[in-house]
Predict the 3D structure of the following.
Amino acid sequence: MKNYTITVNGNVYDVTVEEKGAGAAPAPAPAPKAVPKAAPAPAPKAAGAGKIQVKAGAAGKVYQIPTTVGQSVQAGDAVVVIEAMKMEIPVVAPEAGTIASIDVAVGDAVEAGAVLATLN
C-alpha cells in the first residue's frame, strides 16, 4: 500500500493505493461486442432549401431549436434560440411560412448574419 496526498481545487485528500504483485497477470480485456448497424437516418433537407432566409442577428451559440422542418410559423415566431452574452435571444421568422430547412444544430457556434433556417 502506498499513501499519497492529492490537492484538487484547493482541497487536500489523503489517498491510499493498493499495489498488485509484480508477478500478477493483468485482468483479461473483455471481448468486444458486436454493434448492430443502425438504419440510415433520413436525408435532411438541403441547406438553404427555402426562399426566405432566417438569419442570426448576433453571434453566439445555438441554444434551442423549437421548430421542425415542415412546421408552419407566423411572422415573429421563434425559429431558433441563440445564447449570446449569457442571454437567450430568439431568432424569429421574418414572415409567415413553412420551415423548409434548419441549417444548424444545438451547440453550433454561429456568426451574426449566418443563415440558420429557411422558409417557404
User: Anything to note?
Assistant: The CA atoms of residues 14 and 105 lie 44 Å apart. The chain is about 0% helix and 40% strand. Residues 52-119 form a domain with the OB fold (Dihydrolipoamide Acetyltransferase, E2P) fold (CATH 2.40.50.100). The radius of gyration is 25 Å.
